[in-house]
Amino acid sequence: MSTGAISTSSSSSSTSNIAIVPPMLPDASLQVSNLRISEADIGISRDCISEFLSTHSAYELLPDSGKVIALEVSLPVKQAFHILYEQVVSPVDMGIPVAPLLDTCSGEFVGVLSPLDFILILKEVPNGTLFWPMLKKSCIQLGNRGSNLTEEELETHTISAWKEAKQQLSSQMVLHGQSQRQLIHAGPYDSLKELALKILQNHITTIPIVRSLLQEDSFPHLLHLASLSGILRCICRHFRHSTTSVPILQQAIFTIPLGTWVSRIGESNGNQLAKLKPNESLSRALTLLVQAEVSSIPIVDDNDRLLDTYSRSDIISLAKDKVYARIRLDETSIYQALQLRNNASPSHGSVTGQRFHTCLRSDSLLKVMEQLATPGVRRVIIVEAATNHVEGIISLSDVFRFLFSMP
Amino acid sequence: MGNMSSVREGGDGGSSRSRAGSDDLMGQSPPHSPKSAPQLPLLFAPQIPVTPLQRQEEMQSNNKGLPNSITYDDVLDEHGIPTMINWNHGGKEVFVEGSWDNWKTKKPLQRSGKDFSVMIVLPSGFYQYRFIVDGEWKHASDVPWMNDYMGNVHNILDLQAFVPENLGGVAGFDMPQSPESSYNNRPLGSEDFSKEPPFLPPQLQGTLLNAPTSIDCPSSARLPHVVLNHLYIQKSCSGQPVVALAKTHRFLSKYVTVTLYKSLAR
């Protein structure tokens, strides 16, 4: 999904009007080029990377000793919330709060539970009508109280009931790609290129790599949860020392039509960068995360300086001490939500990428790609060196859309 | 201290949890287990938080607004991999230069007879290199090489952090005979359940599930192969009817530990 764009069109700015501004301090070791990049160089780089991706398979993404979790689809949603919370804060994991769902009756993986599900639950369930058909008699408590979700409600709703309700919800809202009922998955021998295209075309972030065994009575083997970050890591590892064959890697990012940028005075740039102040309400942040189809929002102060970011995956921090049952979304400020997140995982500042990553406009593409290849990092915010103003955002999907010349 | 559980657990029939420090294993396989093999009791210790590997990243932007970050691969850089580079095609003086330092330095190769070789320590990655033999650029055609788009030919070095086990490559490996004893397939009876269960072999405690590892160094957490294909179970202690089952299995050269959270409510 694109980051930071309110309009539904793509996030990359148009190729024709990149203003060439005086370069900032270039990275001396890599000889960053601040000149406009030629179409031929872009073409060569795209071909080179595309060939690399077609010849390597998803097997290379698997770590030598990896760990994945799966949830049975009849688990209560609340349990799932806590399980994913423990995965994120404990040191033993990959930091991705996403889990595939296994239906033990049919023996198939039927879907994936992600932070977006939790955001939708926390926002939509107070509208009692959504869950009315699914309720058991014992937990009829909903109505238009407009208050927070009680523990009972989350406790007894199973994931499968939620997914059915989400079906109904998606027919009311326009949610990209949520109407599929089939699990989008990949096999271990699919090429990296197919994997990346599947992720981009379906607007998802992680795709389970599943090995289906042909014997009957055996469950498919879940091997890995692949994301664009892993694919980018393979690319960086392969090309980090061969920058002459991929000329675009040495270009400064402001010369490449990539990412979402704050429009400068005088430029007409259709996409706006969504930003919020810390005193705005959490429910506004969640609404923006869902409707703008972005995965994270920069939080700025009154002078437009970057303070922090709030991402979809931060919703998991509300599971600590069952905070979700006690707060009202519209009375909690983003500032308080960020405090909760920082309290929930104090040791994970730099490791899971819950703290944000920044770069300068003059950094080379390779440097930004290396940052994005860190596990858990999905976006990098471009700031101005002296003033810390937010200039733009580059996300993983932006980079891959550019590499595949997708809009 | 562990919990003593009675021979027949009423009701739930799951294994009880033991504490981290104790070596005793108190657990019973329930007579009607859904899986046919008895389940080994799990040692899910309460997760002891461990500081992750110290990294020098400064992720919060400071007043100057200059970020500095180090990619995660830098952690692997501490473990360089010694690599031999050989040249067997004659010549008087042979050097090698490569993309590991952006083609800046030339390393001389030591001569032994007609062959030249040198040992370089490199972090895991993909490199291109070429030889300079008596002043001319050459590549070795017996090791992997490639053309780049400018028409140059380079040799390739693809260093993996782990060499996958070559399962078929141990020549003359015979499986040792099983020790002499009597083995049978008799199902367990009530007198077997009244005995203490056998101790868990200490090798099986080396599972990924108990040890806190840092999240982005999977290659340093290579498990011993003895833990493969053993089923671990954790019963949730907070009273929720959820059980966690985990197993490590091998796919080609990679180990995958899958944890399934299953609800017990019927």
Automatic annotation (TrEMBL), chain A:
Keyword terms: CBS domain, Repeat
- Could you confirm whether the keyword Heme appears in this record? no
- Cited InterPro entries: AMPK_gamma/SDS23_families, CBS_dom, CBS_dom_sf
**Domain CBS residue range list:** 267-326, 351-407
Pfam families given for it?
A: CBS
Give the family this protein belongs to, as stated in its UniProt record. Belongs to the 5'-AMP-activated protein kinase gamma subunit family.
Q: What is this protein called?
A: CBS domain-containing protein
Which source organism does the UniProt entry give? Answer: Zingiber officinale (Ginger)
